[in-house]
Amino acid sequence: MESEQPTKEDPIKIHKEGTALSDLGKHDEALEKFLRASELYEKEGNYFDASYALFKAAECNYLLKEYDPAAERFLKAADLALKKAFDRFAISALEYALDSYKAQGKEKEQTELTKRIKELKEKASAF
Predict the structure, then answer these.
(1) What's the rounded Cα separation, in Å, for the pair 114 and 17?
(2) Cα-based distances in Å from 96 to 13, 21, 25
(3) Domain of 103: which CATH number?
(4) The model's pTM
(5) pLDDT tens, N- to C-terminus, the chain (127 residues)
(6) Domain limits at 77?
């Protein structure tokens, strides 16, 4: 008697589906695909792609004017990127989080994040 192997989800395929949906303006559906792809990439230890997929999910939130989850996801994408020293990508994610805070008028968060971005830029330019 053969036992059926559960089909393994392919993060690359899911990521591509998210990109296609996003390109069609279906940001709600794309968001779910990007979140799932990010989760799968992270489980595999692929922090760059996990960070990038999460960044794309945050972009969807931003386009849907869901600024709180957008900011949170941009920040998490930056943290994932920094785990593997992808500083320049992290800076981009932080700058988008800053835009999310600006859209909400969150001045305290803007000030703190501006300082963090400046420090990271200085660190990145030292290399």
Answers:
(1) 34
(2) 26, 21, 19
(3) 1.25.40.10
(4) 0.88
(5) 444 555 689 999 999 999 999 999 999 999 999 999 999 999 999 999 999 999 999 999 999 999 999 999 999 999 999 988 888 899 999 999 999 999 999 999 999 999 999 999 988 787 6
(6) 11-125
